[in-house]
Amino acid sequence: MTVRHSGGGPAARTLALLWRKTRPTQEKARGRRPTLQLDTVVDTAVALADERGIAAASMGNVAKALGVGTMTLYTYVPSKEELLDLMIDQVLLERHLPAPGEDRPADWRAQVELYSDETRALYSRHPWLARVSTIRPPVGPGMLAAREYLLSTMFALGLPPARANLAALAIATYVDSAAGGEAESDLIERSTGQTHDAWWHERGGLWENYFDVERYPTMTAVWNDGDGSGSSYGDGTREVSAKAYRFGLDHLLNGIAASA
Prior knowledge:
With 260 residues, the chain is an all-alpha fold. It is 60% helix and 2% strand. It contains twelve helices and two strands. The chain has a two-stranded parallel sheet. The relative contact order is 0.11. The model has no long low-confidence stretch (mean pLDDT 91).
């Protein structure tokens, strides 16, 4: 499937849409009363993407779902690029990350765990996020809320500002990438109707017919580790992924703590 990219709309216009709720109410222009609310448009696009994938959240499909013409929809969202940014930022705001002054877990590691849990749950609810590259992110309230939360967590650990910024970025990169991978995994299983374990089972002939223990001695050593039953490779793909994620996050946080 094609990967979509956020951040493709005109900067000033996109920012005005993303931050529309923080600006003072403008005097309403004369003319016909709007038949839709922008939030309704975004909600509808998200619902379509949740149900049928990101490609379903086209301007035409959203307009049809709302019972309006496509050209009417463009009066609320000028382009598909801006609609995508609005969708992403809206779902990012679903994460329950305490704002400044709000109660949060006392321990900094628990605060990171909260970010991890909320982010992975977010991608699970909206797996289409795995089909969107946010290298150029929608710089709206959803993104900034997460940045503020992780930065404040690193400040509480006692890191100086520059190092706190790097640590927060490292955590976000690790957690967000893993969450996207989990969502991608779910999408593939859903679209193919085949589990990853079943996919690997079909390719079991690799080990008997092609695998050379002399060429891959380290992999062989891992296979033979423990009781000799191949237990190091014996878990299912989901179990292995969960253990790898836990291992990586624990050691990332250990490294950050050691630098404080």
